[in-house]
Amino acid sequence: MSSKNYTPLLSTISGVMAILVAIIAIASDAMPAVLVYALLIVEGLLLITLARTNGKLLAMVEEDSAPQAVAVSHGQSGDGTVAKYQAFIKKMANISQQLAASSEELTANTQQSADSAIKIAEHVGSVSQGMEDQVKDLNTSMEAIDGIFNDIIAMTEKADTARQSAEDMATTAHEGAYQMEQAVEMMGSIEKSVHESANMVNRLGEQSEAIGQIVESVSSIADQTNLLALNAAIEAARAGEAGKGFAVVAEEVRKLAAESQEAAKHIKENITSIQQATQDTVKAMEQGTAEVARGTESIRQVGSQFGTIIEKIDHIQGQMNGITSAVDVVSQGAEKIVFAVDSMDEISRKVNESTKVISGETQQQSASNEEIAAASLALANLAEEMQTEVTNFRV
Question: Which CATH number is 144-352's, of 3.40.50.720, 2.30.30.240, 1.10.287.950, 3.30.1330.90?
Answer without folding.
Answer: 1.10.287.950
